[in-house]
Design a protein that fits this description.
- The chain has 686 residues and is of the alpha/beta class.
- The chain has 24 helices and 23 strands.
- It has a six-stranded mixed beta sheet with strand order 7-8-6-9-10-11. It has a six-stranded parallel beta sheet with strand order 14-13-12-15-16-17. Strands 18-19-20-21-23-22 form a six-stranded mixed beta sheet, with helices on both faces.
- Bound molecules: manganese (II) ion (MN).
- The site of manganese (II) ion has 6 residues, from loops.
Length: 686
């Protein structure tokens, strides 16, 4: 570049002297000038002088240009030799990928197979025609491998003009001069060892697992001391073999808790080969004959910045596993949480120890507070209302100021009916029910918030109350998801319970002997159980009937509950119409569509449709869909052949083994059905 500019600079004096020579010749060497010989001689002399100066300039320019040229040649030759002998593989290609020049190192990648004339895309399959076409002076990086080696290939475009001197180089015949297009330079770095080191480092990271034998107490209850010790050592032996098979170590923390340390690289083996399921099966066989079937939960933490953080991840993961009913593996890898196993359907715990402990610790927390705000989920149902009422009664028994937070635009019909009945008795405070806004105004430092029948902060009656509260207690029977409320002082989440009303009614038995339920209160709690169990047909365990018996003893009338929960004729008509148009998919799944515009409470209607359809012989799961604004809501039910929670989770929702739901944004009902069918067709479902 510089040489060409220098050439141009030398041309300026040449032009000047030529113009001067012409001027002198024309002005003084013309016939008119002949009269004065002095002027004529001056003209001729000046003319010759200018010519001489011109010639001098030209000679100077030639000499200087030759000197510079020699210098450039030296540099270019050196550059060329540098490229030729460099240990970094280097090649020039056309935009098409055809190699026009390559150094020895490049040739040796493929033992000379890929040389001039061959296409670089054949050598590095990750380099596409498009990436060659798009190459600019800014290098783009393509990672590619060839015969087990990993290369980082930098592609950059070199303008042909910049390298016009390549043609002067020794191998000039190898570059086709006629091609006027740009060349793409490929610089290849062998990163095989670096990648291997990275992978080794990643895989040797420590994973911490916390193992919990979910129902150790129940399993060992029926056994004598000798059998318990046999069971203990059997479990320990199985788990240490499990650990050593995965090159890890295991340590017993408590009688039913273990810590597992292993390399991250073994995590996949644990979840993929189902070795976990195998152990559970073996332990189960060993304890055959006891009434309780054995389950185990594992929480694994990986990729914490420190060991402490990894351990915290493991604790969170285990809590999630237990919160979801146990019998599964939860892995927390940084922010990502994945769930494995847990398709058995949850086993009901027969012990009421937890209810008693939670009742007592709730009492302690409540004791130091003045005001209690009790909040269920949006679109309050009877379970949510009944649970809130139970907590309300506990708070009143301790002379606390209590409020049930209910927004009038977020209630189901039976709740509206119940509120009317409570107000009509005149036995309760006028401020028993308050709106979310009023609650926010009243909430102060001496207040606590009790969240019932949900643990996802997004679906609360008044989500702002969660932000406002620093003392929160949660009572729920829904599985814990990723959006669950954090930092609660008391968290009693029991996915094995049929309903929150069942849990709260159990707690009431232990909370205070002086609490005597009135007929309407017992009936409210019973109604919550009836709704959530769909008339004692799903999620119903021995404890559910125990609680029902307790409520009946307190005066609950089943006929009241039946009347409270009766549907309007128009609702029944809508449900029947939707059922008539149900599609039966794969002989096992019932899928019904419902037009939300014809019902005042379409979400309640689709739940009713799904409930009705699951009563059909041969149907493993039922689904009812409706579109509200831009969201398609799906309500799903099963009995025990299919886990609808897993199905709804795959569509972004959640719930229980036999009752779950989801919302899909921005699709039509038919598109949502297609997605649902794709999940139903997926092989890993059963
Ligand atoms: Mn509920």
């Amino acid at each position: 570049m510089e040489r060409r500019t220098a050439k141009k600079l030398f041309l300026i004096p040449v032009y000047v002297f030529v113009l001067l020579a012409i001027y002198f010749f024309i002005v003084y060497a013309t016939p008119s000038s002949f009269v004065t010989s002095d002027l004529f001689i001056f003209g001729i002399v000046s003319f010759i002088a200018c010519l001489a100066a011109t010639v001098f300039c030209i000679i100077i320019s030639k000499v200087s240009s030759q000197n510079e040229r020699k210098l450039v040649d030296v540099v270019k030759t050196g550059e060329y030799q540098f490229m030729q002998t460099n240990i970094t593989p280097l090649a020039f290609c056309e935009r098409s990928g055809s190699i026009v020049w390559a150094n020895d190192a490049f040739r040796s990648i493929s033992d000379g197979h890929y040389d001039v004339g061959k296409n670089i895309c054949g050598l590095f399959t990750e380099i596409t025609k498009q990436s060659l076409h798009d190459a600019t002076a800014d290098p783009t990086i393509v990672m590619s491998s060839y015969e087990g080696k990993v290369y980082q290939v930098k592609l950059l475009c070199v303008n042909k003009n910049d390298y016009e001197d390549i043609k002067d180089l020794k191998d000039e015949e190898k570059i086709d001069e006629k091609k006027q297009s740009d060349y793409v330079m490929a610089i290849c770095y062998d990163e095989t060892e670096l990648e291997a080191a990275k992978l080794a480092l990643e895989n040797s990271k420590l994973a911490i697992g916390l193992i919990n034998l979910d129902n150790y107490d129940e399993v060992s209850e029926g056994l004598d001391e000798f059998k318990i010790s046999v069971l203990r050592s059997f479990v320990e032996r199985k788990l240490s073999r499990f650990a050593s098979e995965n090159s890890g170590v295991i340590k017993r923390l408590e009688k039913d808790k273990f810590m597992l340390l292993l390399d991250v690289s073994h995590i996949n083996t644990i979840t993929e080969t189902k070795s976990y399921a195998q152990i559970v099966e073996e332990i189960r066989n060993e304890t055959a004959g006891t009434e309780n079937s054995f389950t185990m939960s594992i929480g694994i933490g990986i990729s914490g910045r420190t060991i402490e953080e990894t351990y915290d991840y493991a604790k969170t993961a285990l809590n999630l596993a237990l919160g979801r009913g146990g019998d599964q593996i939860v892995i927390k890898n940084g922010k990502d949480v994945s769930f494995h196993g847990g398709r058995e359907g949850t086993k009901e715990k027969t012990k009421r120890v937890r209810a008693r402990i939670k009742a007592w610790s709730f009492k302690e927390v409540l004791d130091i507070k003045e005001r209690v705000f009790i909040m269920g989920h949006a679109n309050a149902d009877v379970d949510s209302f009944g649970a809130a009422l139970g907590i309300y009664l506990m708070a009143l028994s301790m002379d606390k100021e209590a409020y049930i937070v209910l927004n009038s635009d977020s209630l189901t019909a039976p709740v509206v009916e119940l509120m009317k009945l409570y107000n009509e008795t005149g036995q309760y405070s006028e401020k028993m029910f308050i709106s979310g806004k009023a609650a926010l105004d009243l909430f102060n430092k001496n207040s606590m918030l009790v969240v019932v029948d949900h643990n996802n902060e997004k679906i609360s009656q008044e989500p702002k109350l969660i932000e406002a509260a620093d003392t929160i207690a949660i009572f729920d029977h829904h599985r814990v998801g990723v959006n669950s409320i954090q930092g609660a002082v008391i968290s009693y989440i029991e996915p094995n319970a049929s309903s929150t009303c069942e849990m709260i009614a159990e707690m009431l038995e232990y909370f205070d002997d002086n609490i005597k339920l009135k007929k309407l209160e017992a009936e409210t709690l019973l109604a919550g159980i009836v709704v959530d169990t769909n008339n004692f047909t799903s999620q119903t365990g021995a404890r559910t009937f125990d609680v029902a018996a307790f409520l009946k003893q307190n005066g609950a009338e089943v006929s009241f509950v039946r009347k409270l929960l009766r549907e309007n004729f128009s609702e029944i008509k809508l449900v029947s119409e939707a059922i008539t148009n149900t599609e039966i998919y794969n002989d096992s799944y019932a899928i019904a569509k419902f037009d939300s515009s014809i019902s005042s409470q379409p979400l309640v209607t689709i739940a009713l449709i799904a409930n009705e359809l699951i009563e059909t012989r041969g149907i493993k799961a039922s689904f009812a869909l409706t579109k509200i604004e831009d969201k398609v809501h799906i309500s799903a039910r099963s009995i025990d052949e299919v886990n609808v929670q897993v199905i709804m989770e795959k569509l972004g929702g959640g719930g229980h083994h036999s009752s779950a739901a989801t919302q899909i944004e921005g699709v039509s009902v038919d598109e949502a059905i297609d997605r649902l069918k794709a999940v139903l067709d997926s092989p890993d479902l059963v």
